[in-house]
Amino acid sequence: MSDKAPKGVRMVISLVGRRNVGKSSLINAIAGQEIAIVSDHPGTTTDPVGKHYELLPLGPVTFYDTAGLDDSGELGELRIKATHKVLYRTDIALLVIGLDGIGDKERDILSRLDELNIATLVIFNKTDIASPRSEDMEFCTNKNLSYLQTSTSSGEGIDAVKKAIIASAPREFAEDPVLVSDFIQEGNIVLCVVPIDLAAPKGRLILPQVQVLRDVLDSDALGMVVKERELEEALIVLQDRLSLVVTDSQVVLKVAGDVPDHIAMTTFSILFARYKGDLRTLVQGARKIDALRDGDKILMCEACSHHAVADDIGRVKIPRWMTQYTGKNLEFVQYTGHDFPQDLEEFSLAVHCGGCMINRTEMLRRVRECMRRNVPITNYGVAISKIQGVLDRVVKPFNL
To answer: Could you tell me the pTM of the whole model?
Structure first.
């Protein structure tokens, strides 16, 4: 089950610390199986490696085994940078302390974890060899850091670590995520409008569409799917029985024209903006499109890497539509995957994808980082609705 859960709904638990403190052994002890390579040779783990596990009652999680914070050399510096990049999508960090105790490396990473507002557990490992130093435990107490003692050799403290992870889980992982279930009731009809174009994956729907339909079914409502060309016929058949219409953003203007005003309507991207991020902030960011000027740089962010088709939504369509809407000469810069630019201040606006392949933590961190640096941020679907002149219509169900 955990191997099949989408990456975007997994809680991410990252183990950080110096080399040879027992991070890999701790992952294996928590999971009760050999899922990470263990060696007495320092630096066995190089790049961050994700390991899937089912941690009940939370469900599917991903443990990241990272390189040592004291890695050395030019390659070691790159490994440490990769570890820091993982922190952007981390929900809980386990700082593993070895026999050398808490030093400058640990204090530096604790400052970074605090800056990113990441829930942190300090794990004093290898207690079968030596107990934690009193000054280190006092340091944790003074910093209000939760700490535990473990021995992966004897199994001491492993169950306590699991319980502490569960207790530290962000609220959205302890509760059932909501997409549309708070808008509908048993027996309601939800109509999903799904265009099939060159960008549509062959033989399947994309993840946001699948998740919305699943949420409809879990609410004991009726979920129906049509292409935009069949929408008018569906509206005639269903008439006033519809409770909600959810459309792909690329055809939102046509759908808004066809769906009567008294029927609630939104987009898959709007739903995911709420589900994965901060909808109010993303809507405010979209309204900043009106203030763009000649020469402004626009950051286009995609959380997953994919082969770009001829009419790619992020590389072609949105830049074209935004240029036509504003009448300005704009520069668009593409970032994909987990990369996020350090020089955010040079951008006048960030436009993010729906974020279906990253977790809510990483999406919120990106939103907050943009806001911290006074860079407005929106997402693909919200921006498209703004450009098409229907933003107020599709956010109306959310009282925005």
So the answer is: 0.65
